[in-house]
Every structure is written in C-alpha cells, then in structure tokens.
From TrEMBL:
UniProt entry tagged with the keyword Coiled coil: no
Source species of the chain: Bacillus mesophilus
Protein's UniProt keywords contain Transmembrane helix: yes
Lineage, highest ranks first: Bacteria, Bacillati, Bacillota, Bacilli, Bacillales
Chain segments annotated as transmembrane: 9-27, 33-50, 57-76, 82-103, 172-192, 204-221, 248-269, 275-295, 316-335, 355-377, 389-417, 437-455
Keyword annotations: Membrane, Transmembrane, Transmembrane helix
Protein's name according to its UniProt entry: Citrate transporter-like domain-containing protein
Length: 456
C-alpha cells in the first residue's frame, strides 16, 4: 500500500499545493487551516521517500520545534498555519521541471552539447568552452545541466589520467553551476533571499550579474592557464560533425531573448498585481514555457517531454517537502519564543561592524554545509535571525550575501546534492572535491561580501 502511495505522491503534492495557491488569492482562513492539516500527513508520507540526511534534518527541526512549542504554551490551532509558511517554495519547485522541458523540447541542450564536443587543441581552451556552455544551460535547466556536462566530459576525457580528469571535471562543472545560479530567477536560493529581505529582483540583478561575471572571467583565466599544457584528444567517435558558429550563436541568442522576456514578465506581473517574487515566478513558468514551445512549433514535444519529466521530478521532491515543512514549523515556532533573541545575539553583538556581519553570514553557510546542513535550511533560519539587522544594514547587502554565500557551498558541500552527484559520476571521494573547490568557494563568497559591503 505504501509503495503504491509513494508512486502517486505527485498527485498528493499537486492537489495540496494547487489548493494552497488558489487560497492565496481567496484568503479563506478555513481553507488555510485545512491545507495546513493536510500538510501533516504529506510530511509523514514524504519521510518514507526522503534520504537519510533529510530525515535527520527534518527530525531535528520537528523535535526542537515541538520543544519550543510546548515550552512557550502556544495554542494547538496555530500548528496548521505554521505548516503552510514554506508552501510557496514547494509550489515553486513543482513547476520548475516545465522550464527544463521546454529547453529540451527546443533541443537547445543538444546544440550546446555540440559546443562542448567540438574539438579544441588543449584542456585550457576546453575549460573556457565547457564552463560557458554549462553556465548557460544551468541558468535554464539547473542541476540537469551538471549531469549533462559531466557525462560528456567523462566520455571525451577517458584517455586522460583519472586524477587529472577528476580535477578538471569537478572544478569546471561545479563552479559554473554555482556562478550561473547566482542571478537565475529559477534558483530557489535567489527566491528565498528576495522573499526574506523584501528587496525587488530588479535591484539585485545588476549586482548579482556583476559578481557572477567577474568571478566567471577570473575563473576562465585561471582555468585556461592551469590546464593549457595538457593536450585535448577526445574520442573520435564522439566528434560527429564540425560545430557551426553562426548556428550556435543564433541558438544562444534565442535562449538569452527568452530569458529577458521571462524576466520582464515576472517583474511586470509582480508589480502589476503586487505579488511576491516566489509566487510570481511560480505562476509565470508554466504558461511561459508552453507559449515558448508553441512559438518554436514544438508544442507536442514539449507536452510529451514535460509531462514525463514533471511526473518523475514531482514524485522525487520528498527531500524538499520534509525540509521545507519541518523548517516551516520550526521557524514559525521560533518566532514566537524568546529563544530567537538568544540566537540573534552573535549578529547583534557585531552590529556596529557591518562587514563582520556579512562575513559572519557567509561563514555560517560554510560551516553548516560542512556538517551536512542544506543551505536552504540555513537561509531559512538566518532569514529569521537577521531581521533586526535590517534597521542598520542595507537589506540589499544582506540579500546578496545570503545568495552568494549559499551558492558558494554548492562547490564544497560534501553532503550536498551537487558534490554527491559529481562524486558518483566521477567515482571520486567527495572530500577531495571539497578540498579542491574550497579556495574558489572562499573567493566567490568574499567577492560577494565585498560588493555587498560597498552597497551599505
């Protein structure tokens, strides 16, 4: 019975989240309570499909939340409301696969794959080309781009010594991933930071682009210099045809145009109807993706790929359901207790030095990721803890550090999804990946922190 339910979890998730989203506009308190009550069995069922790490995190948040709840004497009827706080994030995750699907339906991933497979003379040049390709793909298809890039590199670099191949792949793909998502409106860390600080996406965008491009260019220069001495001799069978620069440029231009249109729609609709960023992106993704597919005359392909991808992805978000719902209960309870002021003390203690505050946020991310705490959980807690700081520190600056600090951990978190995936694909120790990318993570985070400091 449980197995049958687990295979249909996407139906449960979709029903509850659609009702929740509709009620955002309706504003019926009774329905909000019903949705909150339904979230409890949804959380319990999701525990069965969640990984061990997320079960542990969820159990800790629920356990501590229950202790705080009981000790504070909060009424039982507040529990359903507490359970709905992070549901907009789950709704956001539920529609993300459709953007992934329209890129695949338009075969943009295949075209950019050709850019990676086209022959170059040495690994230094391949480093820049692969980083560029992964960067663009990650903006649209997130972690799927990581798998695609690594799959191609593992095949084409099979002649290299394993140590060199592992070093090359774990640097280039993870770093491009972390940099691309810094400004992507489809990245959950960006959405959470915007929601936490109340600063509009448009105000963030130029500074996040500046940080992302600056670090990316530095990374290209360093990578090209480091690997240029190694010749690149790919498997000949993998190089099927010569890349056509003009066609490739057209495909990239189309992708960038689509992104600009998407961002314009998100900003316009959000401002017009006074919606928050997470909700706006959630509402725009599906109709935008379908409209884009129709313009490309790939509607049927989009629906076929999209339905299959959406079912698989939606049926596999148990980790995030456990994390978000347990975190929702914990942070909501924490807000009602004096314990919150105790956690805020280290940040308030350095309140006269904004630079120390920003670095403290950055290193909190780093420390938490190294012991296995997902950055989503960290930002969820930090967003509550640092609220008093908005009175004397620019929320834009704090938001930039929240975003960059979170994404820097994608390259070093030994228990994180990205490092674990890379470790499995390349068959190398995840701690080797952590050590190799730690200088980059520190540099990336420091650049973000310094830019944020200049904006105070």
């Amino acid at each position: 019975m449980i197995q049958l339910i687990m295979q249909r979890m996407y139906v449960i998730y979709t029903f509850i989240l659609i009702v929740f989203t509709i009620n955002i506009f309706w504003g019926n308190s009774f329905i909000e309570t019903i949705v909150g009550l339904m979230a409890i069995p949804m959380l319990v069922l999701s525990f069965y499909g969640a990984s061990k790490l997320f079960r542990i995190l969820g159990s800790i948040f629920i356990g501590v939340g229950v202790i705080l709840f009981v000790s504070s004497g909060l009424p039982l009827n507040s529990i359903p409301v507490f359970m709905t706080v992070n549901m907009p994030l789950l709704a956001f995750l539920l529609v993300l696969p459709w953007m992934n699907s329209v890129v695949r339906a338009g075969r943009y991933d295949r075209r950019l794959k050709e850019l990676m497979e086209d022959n170059v003379s040495n690994l230094g040049k391949l480093y820049v080309r692969t980083s560029f390709t992964t960067y663009i793909l990650c903006t649209f298809i997130n972690i799927s781009a990581l798998s695609l890039s690594q799959e191609i590199l593992i095949s084409n670099l099979s002649k290299l010594k394993k140590k060199l191949r592992d070093s090359f792949i774990s640097r280039i793909t993870l770093r491009a991933f972390a940099l691309a998502l810094a400004w992507s409106p489809m990245e959950i860390m960006v959405a959470m930071a915007i929601d936490a600080t109340g600063v509009s996406y448009i105000r963030y965008l130029p500074w996040l682009l500046l940080i992302s491009f600056f670090v990316l260019i530095i990374e290209w220069l360093r990578g090209r210099r480091r690997f240029k001495e190694f010749p690149y001799n790919p498997i000949e069978s993998r190089i099927s045809k010569k890349m056509q620069p003009r066609i490739m440029a057209i495909y990239i231009l189309k992708l960038l145009t689509a992104l600009v249109v998407f961002l314009s729609l998100v900003v316009t609709i959000g401002n017009l109807f006074h919606l928050n960023f997470i909700l706006t992106v959630t509402l725009v993704i599906l109709p935008f993706s379908f409209g884009w597919a129709l313009l490309m005359k790939r509607g049927r392909s989009f629906l076929k790929i999209g339905w299959k991808t959406w079912k698989v992805r939606s049926n596999s978000i148990q980790n995030f359901v456990v994390l978000f719902l347990s975190l929702s209960f914990f942070t909501s309870t924490l807000n009602e207790t004096p314990f919150l002021q105790l956690i805020q003390q280290p940040f308030i203690a350095v309140g006269e030095s904004p630079l120390l505050i920003l670095f403290l946020i950055q290193f909190t991310y780093l420390a938490m990721c190294l012991i296995g705490v997902h950055p989503v959980a960290t930002i969820g807690i930090l967003s509550e803890v640092i609220q008093p700081l908005y009175a004397f520190v620019n929320p834009l600056s704090i938001g930039i550090v929240l975003i960059v600090g979170a994404l820097a951990t994608a390259t070093v978190g030994a228990y994180g999804v990205t490092v674990t995936l890379t470790s499995m694909n390349t068959k190398q120790n995840p701690y080797h990946i952590t050590l190799r990318n730690m200088p980059f993570a520190l540099f990336y985070g420091t650049v973000g922190t310094l830019v944020a400091y200049l904006l105070l």
